[in-house]
Amino acid sequence: MKWNTRSKADEESEETGKRRGPSRVRLFLFALILGAALALCAVGYLDTNQPVSPTITGSILKEELQYVKDLVTVEYHYTNADKAEFPGHVLFGQSVPFTGKSFIVSYDGVIKYGVDLSAVEIRVSEAAKSVTVTVPRSKIISHEIPEEGFRALDEKNGLFNRIHIDDITQFRQTQKDAMESKAVDLGLPRQAQEQSGAVIEALLRTTPGMDAYRLNIRYE
């Protein structure tokens, strides 16, 4: 027979200890988890606030240009007048008198030159920290002679040989060809290419991170 020598106070103290023990363990684990969480948050905060240098690639720079397919940089507005003559009927190898026709026309037109941005070549050299852009030759984006700017100054119909719409259409096309040749003589295609290069350079320099690269513009 064993006697219970512990007092009631000892039993109450032991019971209280049993209740407090697990609580201390839970508090310790909670503090450990909280500390780890705060540490991870701090690391994440530091990482997100570190300055990151943007990566420059050719595809990124091409995306800067994809919203404008044809870049128009030169518009040539002109006014011209010319005479169109069409031979008359031929009989036995001879022109029949009074069957020829002619007209004189004054007209306004506009030629727009530019560059196809999808044809621009971009090469990035990380080692040299340089970007080389090759600008293609310019092309005619549009050439229009509006109807309201096409004015007949003189018309002469031939005998049984009147002026038809096909005659005017043919004349209009020959005048377009002539004015395009004149634009080439004026150096407008080259001017449009160089101005396109200047615009492309300005667009690409706004790309984040481009200040760390040397930008070279070349022309085909």
Please tell me about this protein's structure.
The protein is α+β, with helices and mostly antiparallel strands and 220 residues long. It folds into 2 domains: 1-50; 58-219, no CATH class. 40% of the residues lie in helices and 30% in strands. Strand 2 and strand 3 form a beta hairpin. The longest helix is centred in the first third of the chain and has 41 residues, at 8-48. The N and C termini lie far apart (112 Å). 12% of the residues are buried.
> Structural class, from secondary structure content?
alpha+beta
Number of domains: 2
Distance between the termini: 112 Å
Rg, nearest Å? 42 Å
Outline of the structure:
With 220 residues, the chain is of the alpha+beta class.
Keywords:
single chain; about 220 residues; alpha+beta; 2 domains; four-stranded antiparallel sheet; three-stranded mixed sheet; 4 helices; about 40% helix; disordered N terminus
Write the layout of secondary structure elements.
Elements: H1 8-48, H2 58-65, E1 70-86, E2 90-91, E3 94-95, E4 101-116, E5 121-125, E6 130-135, E7 139-144, E8 150-156, H3 165-185, H4 188-204, E9 214-219
